[in-house]
Amino acid sequence: MSVSRCMLLFSRVQPRICAISVRNKNALVDSRCGNFGSITLLKDPWSGPLTSRRGVYSNSSSRSPDTSLFVPLNIKSDVDDGWAVGAELTQPLDRSELLKILNKFYKRNEMQKIAADQGLDARLFHQAFISFRKYVLEISTLSADLHIILNDICCGAGHIDDLYPYFMRHAKQIFPMLDCMEDLRKISDLRVPANCFCGFIVTYTGIGAVKCVVFKRSAIVMGKLGLSALFKCGVPCDLVTGEERTFVDAEGGQAEHVACTIEMCSVTTPCQCLIQMIRDISRGWAWTRALLGLCAEEIHVCGEPAVINFVTELMYTTGEEVEVRNYKRLSPCSILDRAVESLDNLRPGDCVVCFSKNDIYSISRQIESRGLECAVIYGSLPPGTKLSQAKKFNDPEDPCKILVATDAIGMGLNLSIKRIIFNSLVKPNINVKGEKELNTISTSQALQIAGRAGRFSSIFKEGEVTTMHRDDLPILKEILSRTVHAIEIAGLQPTAEQIEMFAYHLPDATLSNLIDIFVSLSQVDGMYFVCNIDDFKFLADMIQHIPLNLRSRYVFCTAPINKKQPFVCTSFLKFARQFSRDEPLTFDWVCRLVSWPLVPPKNIKDLVHLEAVHDVLDLYLWLSYRFMDMFPDANHVREIQQELDSIIQLGVRNITRLIRATETSATPGIDPLSSQRRPGPSPVSPRRVRGAPKAQDSGVEAGQLDKSLGSRLVQEGLLTPDLLRQLQKEWSKEHRQEESFCEPKGK
Asked: Could you tell me which residue ranges the Helicase C-terminal domain spans (predicted)?
């Protein structure tokens, strides 16, 4: 425990002798392409959390646990040495009589009510009874005291209720959490998370915020966006992410300013910080941890005006005062009154935004079929490839003037975009239950993406925003006109220390089960929520059979991997297995795992595999930061990862050729872009392809349509007449080539 932490705890039981206030400056960005805001906090580093103005810190009744998560343990007889003491003192027991006695005990309502007071609800009481009955009837030698009690009941000398102490003793053996429920509740009490930290906080954003960081002796900026911003201000800055280490000093010395991902920040190193995304259902816990735990004189948090009230309230609980500053966007951005409607209407500086990788592939091919070059950026591309594509798009001398991208363009890339074009307004999301949903993008998401147009540092001094399809434009305008919902909650996640304390009380529980019980018992106030932990549990279940100590197991399960990639999951499993054998994961071992060296991709499937290999190398580097001795060759792995990045860049530059090769070699019934089998016929009527006209608007009279497949597709709006005619020409050409090939020579 740090000296500062000890002093903080000591201050909570002693009268406060001094009050040291540190003025903090920070700003909040309005992502509506308009205003920025800044907050200043007055910190008292020795004061503990205050009572919330919301009154949510009262000691309310404890939350009832989800007993379905309690897994009964298998136990053995306390006496199993062949000496039946109870039988010698009394007599052997008749099993049929025992069964009658046990069933009568189970039906006693009084016993169930008393057991409920001890934490045994109806579910646990039933499970405990089944186990107790099996124990009594099947065990070879009962303990002497239980044997004597059962004999007395059989002989009429005892009452059936006399079994209760022995039943509860057994119940607490198979459900050890019953004996330590109060301790578990205290450990999982998250109502005052600031008690776990002694950090200092505030909010700030944008270049204006970074300029404040520039004049500080040392600082940490969360996110790669801060890296480019600091370099623009002429400040040497290191980059530290789970997979990347870039040092300004050639000898590896640490710079005074560091840009890092939120998960990589240290809550024990004095720093200044720029952070955001506190309400994210998966990563929000990391931002809350930084906000409450960073040992910093100043912390600057990225955000929009919707977060000001929440940060003010949150800071009140830790003894802060908040001051807000506002900043204006330096270049205008407007919503157009017309949709693009066709890729033929694209102009230099356009960015088509999609929310599906398959849409990225499809649109990029259609653009290049029109004789235009386009750059491609999506989330799973390596950082180097994204930067390479961004550089290609930004270069005024490069013929590439169109960008096709996902919302990844809003994450720290500087792009010279004139017009943002939303190809769709529907994006896959994961809800708080971990379920995948297709929802219209939120106002915050729309503003974040739209704000990429006409950035002050780009060659375009004014930005424009529109949609690809006419029907989407009024929806986009309505989305952008909404007031951004105020942020009211911050994410939390159990720490390794809390799970270790749980494991002390429940040594036989699996990590996944410990997490479930923790969440079930956890208490949070209205300002917090427990983040989605499905990914954590997925990894915990995957490596449960591998012998690892709890701390190492926890760290492995926090690894950022894409569980949808089978190769990544398989590699993760091999990493854990090799680690458990106490065998270092050497460079040669990694090369064998990924089949290095690799060749450029020949189709989309190859490209996706290379991206997965890059993720595996990311995983190695992420683990090497935490287990340096077991992952000793991080520098060599980083070198081949850079080579792999170059190979992927080559594939992305030729992405249209890869798509053609994929479609040519596609197996019937298999989606060539996703390598997954297409689903069978759906009972739901087919959805019309957006932009494809209806039959009556297509220029083809209904009477002229025959019953062919092509005509039916046109009628249903799944195919345009122009595309149908183009397909007919290609089919005719291929048919003529086949006929000429099959003609006998000399004819």
From this structure: 335-500
Q: Which of 81-95, 192-206, 448-462, 628-642 has the highest mean pLDDT?
A: 628-642
Instruction: Check residue 745 and give its pLDDT.
Output: 47
Check if the beta carbon of residue 7 is closer than 8 Å to that of residue 46.
yes
CA–CA dist 724, 91 (Å, integer): 92
Residue 565 vs residues 40, 150, 311, 377, 540: alpha-carbon distances, Å:
44, 57, 37, 19, 17
Angle, in degrees to the nearest 10, between helices 634-653 and 587-594: 30
Bridge partners, residue 232, by sequence: none
Contacts of 534 (CB under 8 A, 6+ apart): 434
Q: What is the pTM of this model?
A: 0.70
352: nearest Cα among 459, 475, 449, 448: 449
Instruction: Say whether pLDDT at 706 is over 50.
Output: no
CA distance 527 to 663: 50
Q: Are 121 and 67 in contact (CB under 8 A)?
A: yes
Name the burial class of residue 735, with classes exposed (0-12), middle (13-18) and buried (19+) by CB atoms within 10 angstroms of its CB. exposed
Number of H-type helices and E-type strands within the chain: 27, 22
CB atoms within 10 A of CB 672: 21
Tokens representing 396?
A: 């005024």
What's the farthest any 2 CA atoms get from each other in the chain? 113
What would the pLDDT profile of 329-385 be if each residue is shown by its tens digit?
888 899 999 999 999 999 999 999 999 888 998 899 999 889 899 999 998 888 889
Structure-token pair, residue 652: 């992305």
Residue 507 main-chain phi, psi, to 5 deg: -65, -20
Output the six-digit token pair for 409. 């363009």
743 contacts: CB under 8 Å, gap ≥ 6: none
For 285-321, letters b (16+ CB in 10 Å) and e give: bbbbbbbbbbbbbbbbbbbbbbbbebbbbbbbbbbbb
